[in-house]
Amino acid sequence: MSRRQPRVMIAAWLCLAGLVARTAVAMPPGPSVETLIETSETVLGQEVVYPEGRARITAAIVTVPPGAVLAPHLHPVPLFGYVLQGELIVDYGSEGERIYRAGDALVEAVDWPHQGRNGGRGIVKILVVYAGAEGVPDTEPAELE
Fold first, then answer.
1. Where does residue 18 rank: exposed (0-12), middle (13-18), buried (19+ CB within 10 A)?
2. Does the structure show a pLDDT above 60 at 58?
């Protein structure tokens, strides 16, 4: 074996190692999980209790135009909400107001009258997931306290 051959082999291995390193860096990252919320209580500190009966999960996107005010209502079932866009101001009557902004996750108050409004200039979009039961409404009209 000549003196040159080990140098050529070392150079080849270094090139191959560089190619492998570049390939590893160029690969997309693996899956990840980002927990949005983990709680056993609502925004008002109520214990989350599921309704009796046959389970029914409902997912929806609620869109609230600028300046719009929602009718006072309550939810007799647990509701997970995730604000996708905008800012929503919710009046919980005697429990005060809360402001929810894009990126906020919450478990809404159960059986507690409240009223939301879009006080901003852009639309509000909220992903809502109700953990309901057949025969039990997800939302009911209510009088604000």
1. exposed
2. yes
